[in-house]
Amino acid sequence: MASFTYMGTKKSLARTISALCEEHEPGPFLDLFSGISAAGASVAPSRQIWCNDAQVFSRTLTEALFLSSDDRPRAEFVAKAVQRFSDKNQNALMKANKNLVDEEHRLLGEGTFEDQILLQARLRDETHGRQVELERGHSHCLFTTRYAGSYLGLVQAIQIDSIRYGTDLALEVGLISSEEHRWAMLAMCRSIARISNSTGHFAQYLTPSRSNIDRVLAKRRHCAWAYWLESLNEMHAIGDAKWRSANRVFHGDAVDVLEGINWDQGRPAIVYADPPYTNDQYSRYYHLFETAILYDYPAANGKGLYREGRFRSSFSLSRDVERSFERMISAAGRSGASLMVSYPSNGLLPHSLQKIPEMMAEHFKIVLDPLIIPHRHSTLGGSKGREKEDVEECIFLATQKPLSIPFRQLE
User: Fold this and answer.
1) Alpha-carbon Rg of the chain, whole angstroms?
2) Residue 60 resides in a domain
3) HSE (CB half, 13 Å, CA atoms) of 47?
4) Taking the model in full, what pTM does it have?
5) Which of 79, 266, 343, 396 has the lowest tally of Cβ within 10 angstroms?
6) 121 or 362: which carries more pLDDT confidence?
7) Mean pLDDT in residue range 323-343
8) Is 4 part of a structural domain of the chain?
């Protein structure tokens, strides 16, 4: 399916994770921090996939990939159904913001960089200032009132709102199925990722300046509809319907979910955990996707316009990280599954190369030496220094039974 930007290092570790899974007995693969599901996709469909994440966006994506009853949406039909209704919302929002829309159109083709910078500020100030008025008169104007002039241009924000409007009405009148509605929303998220004025995530948008205005304007010229249509045509589930029917998707804090699973209803063969490794809360990197899926008009605060009440992981809190690891490893040990953990040597948990194996030894019969892989971690924008830094990515593995090949042969 159309891919999303991967946070962290799951994608680059996927081959090693898949190879390790091949040395285990059959049984489900439980990904506790599924995110964009790079790990689950690398293992599927050789074994059943169980996914968990605290983000609603991730749950929506993994449900589409691993639970869908149909292989793909009827892309052409869905597009026509959505466009049948979307024009009403788009025309109304264009009319309500006519002066700003006209000015944006004019300046995208001409004007000094000073004009462009001033326009972005005006878009933010005027649409936000009219938030109450616009939301009273229009059912779908969330992106217009919160993200115009920041992550998106005004016309782009109106397009996103109108895609969602058409998608919701097409579902409401029964033209598209709930699964197709889900695919349409995911295609909308993919479109946002392609047109967003950001650095590959949503921790913050690029503030227009003389040095970056050309990049900002290049993003502003992209059409949200074009990328939505392209993404919708690329969307498809993984595996076949029979295989997908036995998968499971959970939604919640990883440790709480692991501790709360009823093992009498089935057990995974492998529990995989790729927890956050810095004090940055990952929910801020996905918050636009979360808002696009929930479409709940949240308060948006700070430079990054983050959602109020967004999820905060205990693995990103220095006072809680060790206890979180202890709880996770203990619960995994009780499941009878093997536990595979990806974590860098310089993560928030101090002395992780020693501590994680020590914790594992308390709950597993066999704890293998960590597999250490030199890697370059993204600093996710370089806000704390360099954009990339050299680290040792470590894979920790604890089992109740010996692997069929030595761990070191997988390096």
Assistant:
1) 23
2) yes
3) 25
4) 0.91
5) 266
6) 362
7) 97
8) no
